[in-house]
Amino acid sequence: MVSNEQRRRQLAREKFERQQERREAARRKTRRRNAVIAAALAVVVAAGATAFATGALSGDDGKKDTAADAAAPSATPSKGPDPCAKAAPGTPAAKTWKSEPAMTVGTSASYAAKLDTTCGTIDLTLDAAKAPHTVNSFNFLSGQGYFDHTTCHRLTTDPSQIFVLQCGDPKGTGMGDPGYRLKDENLKDPAVKDGVYPAGTLAMANAGPDTGGSQFFLVYKDSKLAPNFTPFGKVGPEGMKVLRKIAAAGEQRGVGDGPPNATVVVNKAAVTKS
């Protein structure tokens, strides 16, 4: 017989996955709207009404995703002081690409990454053998400076047993992407069997099958999630210390799912081959 606590956790996990799907639907809607605006702009400019066109472009492209507002009602507020330093000068990249980058990583090589954040350095190892396309994309975006000056926009701390920090969105809203989609990889990795992504897992966020982009999450405590998110690396010991410091500060909404109280900004992301 399923207990109330088990049922509550199951509902929370399902809600987390629905939120990812809603984000993708919102992104599709934004792209469709922009296409219509672009077409309208061409007509308006041809007619000489450039002032109207400028107004049409000032829509809600930067509107924040609010899908995470309604977290589990039993979540306990968790707040703390901001433990992080001031961000380095700079702004996130705005560049996007039409297709996945060409493969440049070797599946037999070893790759490591460092996220130099305002809260400390998060060291990572990347698994190119099991998730070559995902690691290749992460390497490409890092080399393009895509992650530099971006905010880690989401922290989950609620009793649904999902404990992750989500990063990789230049918009800082959960709505950003590099313009292309990645297919899922490594979903049958034994490390994420039984519906648990262990502490230290580095995985891709998505909004459904084969919708990976630039956003990724770092697991700071064992988290119960369906094996639908590509695991492509591990967080090192020093990185885990930084993640736990961020998690200890809590999240802003006090509902277990929202922007972290810690001002987590990736000053620089870099991948190295060994």
TrEMBL record:
Biased composition (Basic and acidic residues): 1-24
Residue intervals of the PPIase cyclophilin-type domain: 120-271
Extent of Low complexity compositional bias: 68-77, 85-96
UniProt keywords, alphabetically: Isomerase, Rotamase
Region (Disordered) location: 1-32, 56-98
GO molecular function: peptidyl-prolyl cis-trans isomerase activity
Catalytic activity: [protein]-peptidylproline (omega=180) = [protein]-peptidylproline (omega=0)
Enzyme category, top tier: isomerase
EC annotation from Swiss-Prot or TrEMBL: 5.2.1.8
Matching PANTHER family: PEPTIDYL-PROLYL CIS-TRANS ISOMERASE B-RELATED, PEPTIDYL-PROLYL CIS-TRANS ISOMERASE-RELATED
Function: PPIases accelerate the folding of proteins. It catalyzes the cis-trans isomerization of proline imidic peptide bonds in oligopeptides.
Family: Belongs to the cyclophilin-type PPIase family.
Protein name: Peptidyl-prolyl cis-trans isomerase
Lineage of source species: Bacteria, Bacillati, Actinomycetota, Actinomycetes, Kitasatosporales
